[in-house]
Amino acid sequence: MKLHVLISEFCAGNPTKNIKWKNQPKRKYCSNHFCFVLFFPVVLFFMLLCFNHLFFENIKGFVYFHGKSTGSVTYFPGKLNETEDSCLGRYIYIHDLPERFNEDVIKDCQSITRSTDKYSMCKSLENSGLGPGIEALNASDLWKNSWFSTNQFMLEVIFHNRMKKYDCLTDDSALASAVFVPYYSGLDLRRYLWGFNTSMRDLSGIDLVAWLARKPEWKRNSGMDHFLISGRIARDFRRKSNRKSDWGSNFRLLPESENITMLTIETGYSKNDVAVPYPTYFHPANDFQVHQWQEFLRKQNRPYLFSFAGARRSRQKGSIRAEIIDQCQASNKLCNFMDCSLFNQCDDPLNLMSLFRSSVFCLQPPGDSLTRRSTFDSILSGCIPVFFHPGSAYTQYVWHLPKDHNRYSVFISSKDLRVGKVTINQTLLQVSKDEQLAMREEVIKLIPGIVYGDPRSRLETIDDAFDLAINGILKRIKVLTKN
Ligand SMILES: *[C@@H]1O[C@H](CO)[C@@H](O)[C@H](O)[C@H]1NC(C)=O
Ligand SMILES: *[C@@H]1O[C@H](CO)[C@@H](O)[C@H](O)[C@H]1NC(C)=O
Ligand SMILES: *[C@@H]1O[C@H](CO)[C@@H](O)[C@H](O)[C@H]1NC(C)=O
Ligand SMILES: *[C@@H]1O[C@H](CO)[C@@H](O)[C@H](O)[C@H]1NC(C)=O
Ligand SMILES: *[C@@H]1O[C@H](CO)[C@@H](O)[C@H](O)[C@H]1NC(C)=O
């Protein structure tokens, strides 16, 4: 043992052996007595260390002295593994933002509610942001406890609540591979989108980046390791002019903001925005609920070849929706149309899910923007999505959907449709039963990765939309901060 050699070298009563001490007058003071006094505490320390090692190794939450030069102390999740820290490279630090950037925004939940919301945002905040639980029509287990009337804008709150339970959080930002900024960007903006001047809409974004840039965490990588989440599309934060009539805020055009990666439900052309799935109604609490739902979908009877839930966009020039609705109605034996301009029937999750569950294909044309929440509702129902624009999914959800989009979806060019080169029913009738089956199985397999699990529990082996987003962000930041 090294310690033993050390002690014997210094205290064997033959100090001349030690070259370092040779010819040094101090040598004579190293009497055996002195050495004992000097080394006794050292021996005691090593003994304690061994004792500790033998008896406390298996205790959860054991304080582990991290080997990094920072000398920081962290709590080890789960069993101590001396050879490898399972969180290494995955540590995330959450900025402790002033409450005006998050808690205060949702505290005033009436101010973020609009008349078009099915529920007030106060109700949507229930259940950690999942919204009110869906009351089942009958006591089927499938509908119990894991289905909620979730408002898509609540993604910021749901994601933040998941982040708080992330298993590799650290209080030491020097150890972190990424820094999460829990700013409720979209909810904050929602208060000022209508009837407010541009300075009101821009205020909190400017305030936020000023706060961030003053922090030591910023200086390390100029914010390149920071990320945040938005439940609104990226375009809402890229207002080009200061005219009041222009839409949105300028948050993502601020120089500091551009260095932060924003996870958003729809990206534009900016390289620092990455799309993640819209939240659906299903928020499983455990793996079993996911598998049970997948099994249920495999056995579904799907009497309709295709369906569409949506409304016309008469004010929008060049919208393909009118054509799609016309074609759906013209093939009424094959297509089921749910008109969302009537009685808010599309706001009812049970209605919508049962429409999609009884269809083989679900049409997903662009709406006000290129993407739709409906795309994820259709995947969740095992209904094969049909896209009319590559920006509706293929160029968006690169961490969550497979690159080979023919495996799980059908693409129909809007141009061909408009000029009458193709019809929807003919295109879909050409897909054989076997191909349908294979595609549906792909879609059903995508479900775990596009749902956000209930933040109050923990999925065991499944990587859900949150987990995939975190894996993606860690890989991305690693590349960004390398040079
Ligand atoms: C500890 O980490 C090593 C290296 O990754 C691994 O091979 C080993 O299985 C781990 N042991 C435990 C108990 O997790
Ligand atoms: C309720 O039960 C009936 C009969 O078992 C079933 O056909 C129906 O799909 C169920 N409804 C829901 C919402 O699960
Ligand atoms: C914007 O509106 C706020 C209140 O709504 C007002 O206090 C402020 O002066 C306005 N700013 C400009 C530049 O008009
Ligand atoms: C953004 O990041 C780049 C590259 O790291 C850096 O040069 C620049 O100063 C950063 N911008 C701000 C406003 O911090
Ligand atoms: C297919 O669609 C066309 C027009 O979109 C329609 O005229 C035709 O009747 C449809 N065929 C069937 C079998 O529904």
TrEMBL record:
Topology versus the membrane: Single-pass type II membrane protein
Keyword Disulfide bond: no
Broad class of where this protein is predominantly found: Golgi
Key words of the record: Glycosyltransferase, Golgi apparatus, Membrane, Signal-anchor, Transferase, Transmembrane, Transmembrane helix
InterPro entries (UniProt xref): Exostosin, Exostosin_GT47
UniProt keyword annotation of Lipid metabolism present: no
Name of the protein in question: Exostosin GT47 domain-containing protein
Lineage, uppermost ranks: Eukaryota, Viridiplantae, Streptophyta, Embryophyta, Tracheophyta
Membrane-spanning intervals of the chain: 34-56
Sequence similarity: Belongs to the glycosyltransferase 47 family.
Subcellular localization: Golgi apparatus membrane
Domain Exostosin GT47, residue spans: 87-419
Organism superkingdom: Eukaryota
Gene Ontology MF terms in the entry: glycosyltransferase activity
Example of a GO cellular component annotation carried by this entry: Golgi membrane
